[in-house]
Amino acid sequence: MKSCLQLVLMFLFFLSAGAQAEIFKWVDKNGQVHYDDKPPLQNKNSKQVMNVDQNNNSVEPLSNRRVDKRKKLLDAIDEDRQQKKDQAAKAKKKKAKLNKQCLRARDSLKSYQQSSYVYDLDKDGNRVVLPSSVRDKVIANLQKKIAENCK
Asked: Are the CB atoms for 66 and 52 separated by under 8 Å?
């Protein structure tokens, strides 16, 4: 019984020792990209992409250029993301500022519409009541600015 178990274990050991595969990449006549563990029979321009050692489950890349290209691509993607975040933050800040200005303009419009007259201060700090035509022009200008900038 013991020798039978040893024989089975030796068989399994030798069976696993040769477990290594290659992955091939090729493009067919329709432009379709294929990956397989066997090279295609009709296409001699197939390219070996990587060796896969199934014993230790590691993937061995064929060149370091691919790693460098991948790193550059990931760095470019990260930089693009950061730029988009910065632009979004600026847009959000600008929108908040515009909303604040719109709120002030609407408050000023309400106060001008509710007041019966508009005054200005002279050199001495005394109130000088302005004609109603000036009040109407101020209200019209505020309404125009609100219509253009506030939505």
From this structure: no
pTM of the entire structure? 0.45
Each residue's pLDDT tens digit, 60-113 = 445 777 888 888 888 889 988 999 999 999 999 999 999 999 999 999 889 888
Place of tokens 């035509």: 133
| Rg of the chain in Å (alpha carbons) | 39
The domain ranges of the chain are 18-80, 97-151
100: tokens are 């604040």
Give me the residues paired with residue 119 across strands.
129
Q: Concatenated DSSP letters for the chain?
A: -HHHHHHHHHHHHHHHHT-EEEEEEEE-TTS-EEEESS--SS-TT-EEEEEEETTTTEEEES-HHHHHHHHHHHHHHHHHHHHHHHHHHHHHHHHHHHHHHHHHHHHHHHHHHH-S-EEEE-TTS-EEEEPHHHHHHHHHHHHHHHHHH--
Q: How many CA atoms lie within 13 A of 109 on its CB side?
A: 15
Q: How many CB atoms lie within 10 A of CB 118?
A: 17
